[in-house]
Design goal:
By secondary structure, this protein is of the alpha+beta class. The chain has a single domain, classed as Creatinase/methionine aminopeptidase superfamily (Creatine Amidinohydrolase), CATH 3.90.230.10. Helix content is 27%, strand content 27%. Strands 1, 2, 4, 5, 6, 7, 8, 9, 10, 13 and 14 form an eleven-stranded antiparallel β-sheet that branches. Helix 1 packs antiparallel against helix 2 and helix 3 packs antiparallel against helix 4. The chain is globular, with a radius of gyration of 17 Å. The structure holds 2-amino-4-trifluoromethylsulfanyl-butyric acid and cobalt (II) ion.
């Protein structure tokens, strides 16, 4: 899984480098697809429950599962790129919300707080703790910054299949939920919005929106619980000093 995660992290970096004003989501989808295949891996989302693309590209108030189209990205957009791959039978899953050029201060803060919430949850992913400890840490960080925890979607176990038990909610009560054990692997994926609201689906049956102007962000990594604590399987470690509040 760590190898799958490394290949996914590299593929995400290729997509990230291509995000700029004028690029289309469909072009980014192609870049992700080619990056995965070039590494001998398989796009996990293409055809998954009928999903028609390699990546989900969720722009501004779209929170998850936006389908790549031909509308060029614009300066000031924020875009969540979310995708997964399979390598030697093992899955890895990762999402980042990326700024397109220069974005507004509120959008920047939302993106930063959502990432910080991931690290707060990550720190709780210890053997002997409970899933509620992870969930509560994520929720507390997002809410203390004045943002809204998106509740309609959750993280998930992952391994030799894409979505497994247990669920990994981004809200909950410390001390509750399944006990965490070394060897568990899951996708921790905080989603936050500027203000309270419910996600609703567009007519395509996939695209989930928070509603007009209610920007949303996400930060997802695949992680493992080890005897020594949490281990990152996708993404790069950040220095603890940069995780504030
Ligand atoms: N990558 C998403 C997740 O974090 C799932 C996307 S659903 C798909 O679980 F159909 F687009 F693959
Ligand atoms: Co996921």
């Amino acid at each position: 899984m760590a190898e799958a995660g490394r290949l996914l992290t590299e593929s995400m970096a290729e997509v990230g480098r291509a995000v700029r004003p004028g690029v289309t989501p469909r072009e980014l989808d192609r870049i992700a697809h080619d990056a995965i295949v070039a590494r001998g891996a398989i796009p996990a989302q293409l055809g998954y429950q009928g999903y028609p693309a390699t990546i989900c590209l969720s722009k501004n108030e779209i929170v998850v599962h936006g389908i790549p189209d031909d509308v060029p990205l614009r300066e000031g957009d924020i875009v969540t790129v979310d995708f997964a791959l399979i390598f030697r039978g093992f899955y890895a899953d990762m999402a980042r919300t990326l700024p397109v050029g220069t974005v507004g201060a509120e959008a920047q803060l939302l993106v930063r707080v959502t990432e910080e919430a991931f690290w707060k949850g990550f720190a709780e992913a210890q053997p002997g703790k409970r899933m509620g400890d992870v969930s509560a840490a994520v929720q507390r960080h997002i809410e203390s910054a004045g943002f809204w925890v998106v509740r309609e979607f959750v993280g998930h176990g992952i391994g030799t299949s894409f979505h497994e038990d247990p669920q990994v909610p981004n809200y909950g009560r410390a001390g509750r939920g399944p006990q965490l054990r070394a060897g568990m692997t899951f996708a921790l994926e905080p989603m936050a919005a500027l203000r309270a609201g419910n996600a609703s689906f567009l007519k395509d049956g996939w695209t989930a929106t928070m509603g007009r102007g209610n920007l949303a962000a996400q930060y997802e990594n695949t992680i493992a619980i080890t005897d020594d604590g949490p281990q990152l399987l996708t993404g790069n470690p950040v220095p603890a000093a940069s995780v504030s509040r």
